[in-house]
Amino acid sequence: MAPAVPLALLALVALLAPGLGVAFPGCDYPVHLWCSSWEIAVACQAESRCANLSRPAAAPVELSLFYESLCPACRGFLVQELFTAWLLLPEEVLSITLVPYGNAEVGAGPIRCRGRSLGHHRPRSDRLVLQERNVSGKWHFQCQHGPEECLGNMIETCLMHEAKNFSTYFPVIFCLESGSSVTKNLEACLQVYAPQLDGGRIAACVQGDVGAALMHRNAQLTEALDPPHQYVPWIVINGKHTDELQAQAEASLLGLICHLYQGEKPKACGGSRAPKAPAGCRR
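Above: the chain's sequence. Below: its structure in token form.
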């Protein structure tokens, strides 16, 4: 007669599977299901043993840049930090939203182009001039660096509207912001980076009601910032703005995005995953 096997030993054996090991607290699933989904594998601490189970894609880091087209610090951040990070990182790692509008008020007591007011308090004045006004049903705009900046903001906004695809319009905006004139180089930049776009359609947008409506939307997005912006460029990451995030982004945006991204690190972050094949002038 075979010797009796203690019940405790039977229970332990029941929790074992070749190559998997023992169930951990919080794992309420039978062994044969441990590799049936990534969530179960994590709950049972079996991720490393489920070789055929792919890790779910992590959400990209979401970055929104609120800026003015002629603000030197805005141009510097967009050209040197943001465009570089975009070139080096796959699109599933970094998602970018551009809002060319800038300061909510101009005139006496402006919110400054790259300059934090003392104590980070929003400057106040009894003689503030609103940046946008609705006159007889049409939106009119006044910008910190004058009419040319309003035109630059409008050109970039209409460019985004016409191109739709970020990888199409961002190199053009980079070309405009890094060149000698934001407002005079559109055709040249289109010819190099996006010859498929119609400059005439962009000009019509700039001069018509569509451009004004799009700029009004940028004004609404800027005014909805919480906390309200105190300067530009104003950087929002994953829906949040803090002094620390702003400083880290301006010092090394690539390093910050690599730190925040929760998925498998790409090569630009020191990981092993190679970037996707280049598309157009993307890389």
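The first helix runs from residue 7 to 14.
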